[in-house]
Input
Amino acid sequence: MTQGPVGKPVTIDDYNALQLPDDRAICERLRQVIDDSLHDAESKIWHAHPVWFLAGNPVVGYSKLKSCVRLLFWSGQSFEVAGLSPEGTFKAAERRYTVVDQIDVEQLQAWLGQARLIQWDYKNIMKKRRLDRIS
Output
């Protein structure tokens, strides 16, 4: 396993390997569906969590919380497909999982399709001091 500063994972494989078995199964299933649906996206560890980017803009990622694995879509509040809960003060929305069987692959694929079509410009939010829709 490759680790960066203070034992932080360097790759998504490393991140998933650090999880307990039930959480690892969730992470690995999410990664598989995300990779299959967003095959042209760049994926990497960003702020200590797996994140996928389209044209440098973060669109989806997941993270281990105390009681679950959280799937986060940066522009999810603008999606036309139901099933996500608002998160934070911008346009992000989330879904939380405690067991791998809770992942509805068709619903996840629909959200990922929306993530490709509906994006807010998180890449430039600090420079512009506002959040603009880019697609």
Notes: Strands lie at 42-46, 49-54, 57-64, 69-73, 85-86, 93-97.
